[in-house]
Design goal:
The protein is mostly helical. Helix content is 58%, strand content 5%. It is built from 22 helices and 7 strands.
Amino acid sequence: MQRPLAGLTPKNLASELTAGVTLLAIAIPLNIGYAQIAGLPPTAGLYALIVPTVIYALVVSSRQLVASPDAAAAALVASSVGGLATAGSADYATLAMAQAIICGIMFVLLAVFKLGFLANFLSKPILVGFVGGLALDIMVSQIAKMLGVKIESGGEFPEKVVGLVTGIGTLNGWSVLISAASVAVLLIGRRYLRAVPWALIVLVLATVVVVMSGLDQKGVDVLGEVPAGAPAFTWPMIDWTTWLALIPSAIALTLVTTAEGLLVSRSYSEKHGYPFHANRDLMAFGVANIAAGAQGSFAVGSSTSRTAAMDQAGSRTQLPSLVLAVGTLLLLLFGTELLADIPSPVIGAIVGVAVIPLLGIREFIDLWRADRFEFIIGTICFLVTLFVGSIPGILVAFVLALINIAKRAANPAIDVLETSGDPAESLLEDAPAGTVTAPGVIVIRMAAPLFFANGAVFTTAVKDAITAAGDGAVEHLVIDMEAVTDIDVTGAESFTALKEWLADERITLAFSRVRPSTRRRLARLELLDDEKVYATNRAAIVDLTGTVPEGTS
């Protein structure tokens, strides 16, 4: 079993500690902003950086993935919990904690039963659309914050847009100025000096300006008092019906985090050549989320942006996460008074800039160029998430995933080797290029399992190929079964109907390159009967015709 903090050596200790300071500078302002997106106090975002982060860092197999609440998770919390309690209330915070615990239990179950593959149903178009819809909803809230306009943070997207538009007349000039300067510094700094913690710099500078100029007295909203002290362990006390009501949103959070987290974790492990264990990573998410819910925080996921920042900083261990936890604890114990005067517009600017990549603009353009059907899938998921809600969005995402799977499975690749005697591309693995079948023989290969979605398609393709060859031109049919890994009952019925048609046409049937498991399946479904089974296509052709096909030796 991989030891905790794998990859840490005396040689890289100093660089890993430095990366931890960088991570602390990035995470503090972002987590304060994400907590506000979720409708929770700043401490909820900061608490997530202590115990959950430590537990995750010590359990996870990934040496680089950073676990933390992110923008998408915060928006999901706000949209789901907001329908059950008023944002900012004690009940609301309790529900967010319970939701994190449910997520944790689900992650543990996924790990124990090795069900992480379920997240594979969330394809890239679906994730781009779902996360993009959440990101645009977040952007509206952050733009309002940057302009100093008050809107209902827990409302639906159309309500937020209406509130923003109708409230433009109440915008605060100083807030706009602070936001514009912050966005400019963040974008320019990120472009030319990515290693510099620009979020922390603009946060400190904006706070100093507000304090020295008294802008909080001129309408600039500030964070306000942040309670000091370490997080206390507790447990959400709610009735069982409320626990049940939180399950759908917890499923959405779990699946999105699983899909994104495992994908990012795998990509970095392959990039740097260290082991990747999906189930251990899921277990790490599980215990981290249970810890988050038990000490006043909310759901924890993977942070792609922070993981990328640590990779650019040269970090290859989880030590920066432990530095982050210690630094956040010290801030909560001794430095919360430094947070009270942070201007809300600069938090909006930091979160807004961080969320821009999540909008998926470039990804949507790539989908449009690559595959219009998948572009439509992503767009539908985007619109449903944005205008109907996050939970309907994830449900639609799964329906679209199933439709996409069915569409592709119902149209498998079916290769036909014509019987005209003219040179054609050979499907015989061991035959020279240009080989053709012997007269009267046709070889057909289906590159997929035979099941209810494509049984009729395969049968039709075989009949069409035989009919196209002309009356009496085909005497023998060889079906290459190498890629047929399974056959279901409906597929077997289609196959039986094909056999009857072949018998009426006086065409013999043989199978080639049948896998042992598929052969047992064929026998169980009574599809073998008197049909011959061959090791190779060439053997089938020679045996059936008694001649060697032209071009073979």
